[in-house]
Write a structure and sequence with these properties.
The chain is of the alpha+beta class. It is built from nine helices and 30 strands. Helix 2 runs antiparallel to helix 4.
Length: about 450
């Protein structure tokens, strides 16, 4: 009888000292949805210095030329023109040209002709001859052109150049038979000056923006590395051109591009697409894209460990000390907390917790904390009192992780990647203004934090 009693007491003592060892929960990961691509309209500002084109246009336009309008009856004009250098000045959607010069005129006037004896006609009265700027200083004039410019869908220029003004600054007193012929003279000279419009349009047609568009299109298809996170691909789909604006000798415009940004951890192998025709212009709505931030369980473990390591519980005069706590995977849509403890009992148990987002507090909070089913089974047999330890309540109260510093680090890395020289003369300039954490998914090794980015992106062609 004593032997049986001793055996029971010893057995109870051994059971009470035995450490609690529970089996590791099975990792179970639900596939999470892929990022949805969002269409963003971004801007590539372009500025072209027109100086070389305008210089070429001036070179092709003669410095001096002559013209005439000869007829039997009425006013006949003969003129010589010398021009000064052309002054170019762009404003708004047009570019203007002003030029001064000097001219001399010879005129003759016949009030009535007959063609009976000469098919070309013979003046039946003596012709009246006049001159202006002949055998005297040439008379000064001023003229002004204006060119409006548009770009066709095939990237060629469509220009319309018009003579805006022709003015004799020191007009001749040209009167024949009490008829002022000054207006007629200006009209005839203006007709001849119209030939210069074609030369101006010809020079504009030589401006090549298609090469610039091709280079920009090619660069936008290249993925951009964001160190530590992966690769951002913009996937451009259409290209539009804003209205041209002129300022002095410079023309500026925007390429507006539709992109569908996507993010991958591995560098994607992309097949470049050909440059599309220009589509209808649309407003820049900024850069928008989703980004999955991978948060390794190690980094989250460090936070949790700092919050719980060394915590002491007393339950019915039994003491439990948390020696370590770490995240070891996920099961049942919850993360697994491996909890090592000592004290009245020692061993390892596994808790399950559901991380949730508290956007107002910018926190990831551990909720729905409970013992894993395998841990429950072991505790029911060897340490039922452990259920009253309120360890799950403590984890919920203190398991709060502020994700703001992490999001700021992500933003900093992305902004650094969006501001770089892509190639000679092409600089990418971007900025993420807002970043929000929208959802979380679990894998066996990490949390996936699904974020939404918004900002601006430009390609600057220098």
């Amino acid at each position: 009888m004593k032997t049986i009693l001793f055996t029971l007491i010893l057995g109870g003592f051994l059971v009470s000292c035995k450490s609690i060892e529970t089996a590791v929960p099975d990792n179970f990961v639900n596939p999470y949805p892929a990022l949805n691509k969002q269409v963003s309209a971004i801007t590539i500002p372009v500025e072209i210095d027109l100086s070389s084109y305008l210089k070429a246009a001036e070179k092709e336009i003669p410095k001096s030329y002559s013209g005439k309008n000869e007829q039997c009856e009425g006013l006949s004009t003969f003129y010589n023109v010398k021009r000064d250098d052309i002054k170019f000045s762009g404003s708004g959607n047009k570019i203007g040209y002003e030029v001064g010069g000097q001219l001399k005129l010879k005129l003759n006037y016949c009030p009535k002709c007959q063609t009976l004896t000469d098919e070309k006609g013979t003046c039946i009265l003596p012709r009246v001859y006049l001159s202006c700027g002949e055998n005297e200083p040439m008379r000064k004039f001023s003229l002004k052109y204006s060119t409006s410019v548009k770009v066709n869908s095939d990237y060629s220029f469509k220009t319309t150049t018009n003579l805006q003004k022709f003015e004799l600054l020191d007009p001749c007193e040209l009167t024949i038979a009490n008829i002022d012929v000054t207006t007629d003279v200006e009209t005839e000279i203006t007709k001849q000056l119209k030939v210069l419009e074609r030369e101006i349009d010809k020079q504009f047609s030589a401006i090549d923006i298609k090469s610039t568009a091709k280079e920009s299109w090619k660069l936008l298809q290249e993925p951009t590395e964001i160190p530590g996170y992966g690769y951002l691909s913009l996937a451009p789909s259409s290209l539009a051109l804003s209205e041209l604006k002129f300022n002095g000798k410079k023309a500026s415009f925007n390429f507006n591009i539709d992109v569908s940004p996507s993010f991958t951890t591995e560098k994607p192998q992309l097949i470049p697409s050909a440059l599309p025709n220009l589509s209808k212009d649309k407003a820049d709505n900024g850069l928008k894209f989703g980004l999955d931030v991978i948060l390794g369980y190690d980094s989250l473990t460090n936070f949790i460990r700092a919050s719980f390591k060394g915590e002491v519980f007393e339950i019915n005069r039994k003491k439990i000390i948390i020696d370590d706590i770490s995240i070891s995977g996920s099961a049942d849509n919850r993360i697994i907390l491996r909890t090592q403890f000592s004290g009245s009992k020692r061993g390892v148990i596994y808790l399950l917790a559901t991380p949730v987002l508290n956007d107002s507090l910018k926190q990831i909070q551990l909720t729905n904390v409970d013992f894993d089913v395998k841990t429950k089974s072991v505790l029911l047999k060897s340490a039922k009192w452990f259920f009253n330890s309120k360890i799950n309540q403590l984890v919920e109260e203190q398991g709060k992780f502020n994700y703001t510093p992490m999001m700021e680090d992500v933003k900093k890395e992305i902004n650094a990647s969006l501001n770089q020289t892509l190639t000679d003369g092409v600089v990418m300039n971007g900025r993420i203004s807002t970043i929000s954490l929208n959802n979380m998914y679990y894998t066996a090794t990490h949390l996936v934090l699904r974020t939404q980015m918004a900002g601006t992106l430009k390609l600057i062609l220098e």
